[in-house]
Amino acid sequence: MQLDPPLAVLDIAKKLESAGHDVWAVGGAVRDTLLGLHTGDWDLATSARPEDVRGLFKRTFPIGIEHGTVGVLGADGVLYEVTTFRRDVETTGRHAVVEFAHTIDEDLARRDFTFNAIAWHPIRDEVRDPHHGLDDLKAAVLRTVGDPADRFAEDYLRVLRALRFAGHFVLQVDPATWSALAAATPQLGILSAERVRDELLKVLSKTPHASAALEMYRESGVLAALYPELQAVTEAEDAWTVTLRAVDSLSPRRPLLRLAALLHATGMPAARAKDLRGGFRYTGHERFGALRARAVMERLKASNADTEYVTNLVARQSDLFPPDAPDAGVRRWLLHIPPSLVNDFFRLRFALWRGNPSTRGDRDLKERWSHVRKVLATKPPLSTSDLAINGSDLKMLGLKPGPRFGEILNALHQRVIDDPALNEKATLTGLARDLAEPDGAVDSEDDASA
To answer: Which end of the chain is more exposed for a tag (fewer CB within 10 A), N or C?
Structure first.
């Protein structure tokens, strides 16, 4: 069964075997290739010890040498991981203490799922499949290696990995594996926030149909254990269905945008109130949602930048200007939706419409999006720094630096927002001179926008 790896992988394998070491291709590359999928992550397992690997190859990197992994730079410039056979000697639910082993079978026995426990010998073209992973692949079944309860107890991250794999590869979870998986969900709290976050981002970035894994998060109890904010959404009428559709309609290349879509309805349970027709309304759910989105992002130890991005999108998800707004109205809207966020704001709005087509149609959104692009193309002055004059020019008028500077520049900015043609140095200097007079009126932002 020739799997056709890169030539650099064959070269590394031949060099190890020539030195007397057993070597096998393992893991995701073997699994994905057997499934007919493209992969670039070829990993090798070997009987060679790390020091042997580093002695055989000129360009190596100790990327995980304490666990037996050495990075070998192939002739194609790609870094390949070469790991010494290992077996577990102690597990804690979060990580394993391992020691080096002597055979590929020992190494495969410590792996999580049967389709990840298939090895292929690149020299002899031999498949090693002691746990019948090939049969499970053909049957589209996800099954643990050995006893499911033991496998999950060794590392509870395997619960999340199982759901991600099952969703991504469209697999049925073996009943015994599912039962053990669901029983293990109360233990997920012992996992580090970083590992939990990375698994969620893999769900959002690896497959267009992320909803499959996310729905299994709900069914298995993972949402209740790790994301109570999302568990509450599943109980708010059709909000969960809309959320999953919205997530799937966005590109996996934008996992953070998909995360904003996933969290967009988290404020709905708190905002839920009866309306006059006997139904429910969710007025102001965006504000509650932003608080919950921030809490999730902080709990996952996301970066400040990622937290602000997701929180801002959730908070502003419904902040659309009127369809008949003039250009000045769109410019004022852009004062609150930064240009850097505009594209993703509309992507989110379109996704939410696709999730719930009964709402205002996409034609309306397209018209507003076209209007925003037209206004942005004029490069409107969206901050006082875009004005044709600055503090130095105000000094030239004899004004002393202080709060008055900011008041005058803000007043000028409000006028320029209404009429960008005013944004010329001579014009603004004259207006600033008038405002600087003792009885000159400096409009507040609220007055100017009234």
So the answer is: C
* DSSP state, residue 32: H
Compute φ and ψ for 193, nearest 5 degrees: -60, -35
Of all helices (H) and strands (E), which one includes residue 230? Answer: helix 228-233
Average pLDDT over residues 62-78: 91
Q: How far is CA 386 from CA 151, 382, 410, 411, 419, in A?
A: 60, 7, 11, 13, 14
Q: What is the DSSP letter of 190?
A: G
Three-state secondary structure of 65-82 = HHHCEEEEECCCCCEEEE
Residue percentage of the chain with pLDDT more than 90: 76
Q: State residue 362's pLDDT score.
A: 74
Backbone angles phi and psi of 281, in degrees to 5: -125, 160
CB 44 within 8 A of CB 8: no
Q: Which of 96-105, 233-242, 408-417 is the most confident on average? A: 408-417
445 close to 414: Cβ distance less than 8 angstroms: yes
Q: How far, in Å, are 108, 142, 152, 199, 229 from residue 186 at the CA level?
A: 28, 21, 12, 17, 16
Domains along the sequence of the chain with CATH: 7-139 (3.30.460.10), 148-318 (1.10.3090.10), 384-448 (no CATH)
- Asked if 72 and 12 count as a contact pair (C-beta separation under 8 A), the reply is yes
361: left (phi over 0), alpha (psi -120 to 50) or beta: beta
Residue that the structure tokens 């076209």 belong to: 370
pLDDT at 444: 41
Q: Which strand (E) or helix (H) includes residue 97?
A: strand 96-100
* Nearest CA among 411, 407, 442 for reference residue 428: 411
Percent of the chain scoring above 70 in pLDDT = 94
Give the model's pLDDT for residue 438: 58
Check: CB of residue 356 under 8 Å from CB of residue 240: no
CB burial of 47-68 (b: ≥16 within 10 Å; e: otherwise) equals bbebebbbebbeebeeeebeeb
